[in-house]
Amino acid sequence: MRQRRLLVSAAPLAVLLSGCTYVLQPPARYDYPFPGTLEVRSVEQMQAAELCRFPHRVPWRAGVGCAIIEEDRCLILLTDKATAEVLRHEIAHCNGWTGEHED
After folding, report:
1. Cα R_g (the chain), whole angstroms
2. Which residues pair with 41 in a beta bridge?
3. All residues at 6 or more sequence positions from 69 whose CB lies less than 8 Å from its CB, including other chains
């Protein structure tokens, strides 16, 4: 079984601007429901840091989610700070959008 993992921190994507959080929206070609098996789990911040392997960051850039892809399955881990926009972003990673966030 071929496994590939895309570990993406929403940290570089979530930027605090005047108390609001902005999440980078995916390009249209990746913005659709994942056609495989999708599982979304809520995890504590420390679990996300360990499971998603977030590098050490300043507090305002702490990761809030990641996508782990294995063939036609995608596991999304989200903290309680994640929003619907973060989920949409992570689903795009399940659909092939890389961590480079290309257009």
Report:
1. 13
2. 77
3. 4, 5, 6, 75, 93, 94
What would the pLDDT profile of 3-24 be if each residue is shown by its tens digit?
Answer: 444 444 443 333 332 234 578 8
The answer to whether the beta carbons of residues 3 and 95 sit under 8 Å apart is: no
Which residues, listed in sequence order, are joined to residue 15 by a DSSP beta bridge?
A: 22
Q: pLDDT, tens digit, for every residue of 30-87?
A: 999 999 999 999 999 888 888 887 655 544 445 788 999 999 999 999 999 999 999 9
* Burial status of residue 3 (CB atoms within 10 A of its CB: 0-12, 13-18, 19 or more): exposed
Structure tokens at 79: 């903290």
Domain segments of the chain: what residues? Answer: 15-94
The token duo for 88 is: 């949409």
HSE toward the beta carbon, residue 58, CA cutoff 13 A: 5
